[in-house]
Amino acid sequence: MQWEFKGEPVTELPDGKVGFIYVTRYTDGSFYIGKKACYSERKVPALKSTPEEDIVHRIILRDQEGKICVGSKQKSAARSLGCVARKEPYRVIVAENSWPSYEGSSSLKDSYVLATKEIVAWCNTKQAMTYMEADLQFRSGALFDMQCLNMNILGKFFPNVLDGEETNG
């Protein structure tokens, strides 16, 4: 099944877009609102043949055996244990992921029969994707709609926490 945007099938990514907001609809009327990044980035050690303009440096804390000590939040603790900070070269590999065959991230989706995959918005940044997904989920009342398969918004708002809340609107 193909993705659609404004009723037209989508086979290629628009230039400059990193991802999209989508709504998957199922045959029983239920739906799921999500976001999908179209590219993945991996940081790998730079090779000797890597052009200088593709090399980026980052500071890594390693112990005497060469193992990475800790994340950036515990640098002072790592240094007290004898870890040494080194500037190490790496390169970023950007690859298009398998977005055309993607069918959603809901853990419940396997129990339903997919009817449509609709792209509702294209995004230029990952930050815009997060905002637009949450905005659409809030505006659609996703947590309170029994047809919606979204179980939370931003991993912070859950329906059971919001039970009994009343509004004046």
Characteristics:
5-stranded mixed β-sheet; 3-stranded antiparallel β-sheet; alpha+beta; about 170 residues; 2 domains
Short note summarizing the structure:
With 169 residues, the chain is of the alpha+beta class. Helix content is 14%, strand content 34%. The chain has two domains: 3-38 and 97-153; 42-93, no CATH class.
Could you walk me through the main structural features you see in this protein, from its secondary elements to its overall organization?
The protein is an alpha+beta fold. The chain has 2 domains: 3-38 and 97-153; 42-93, no CATH class. 14% of the residues lie in helices and 34% in strands. It has helices spanning 75-80, 126-139, 159-162; strands at 3-5, 8-10, 19-26, 31-37, 39-45, 56-62, 84-96, 114-123. The strands form 2 sheets. It has a 5-stranded mixed β-sheet with strand order 2-1-8-3-4. A 3-stranded antiparallel β-sheet has the order 5-7-6. Strand 3 (19-26) and strand 4 (31-37) form a beta hairpin. It starts with a strand and ends in a 7-residue tail after the last helix. The relative contact order is 0.24. The mean pLDDT is 85.
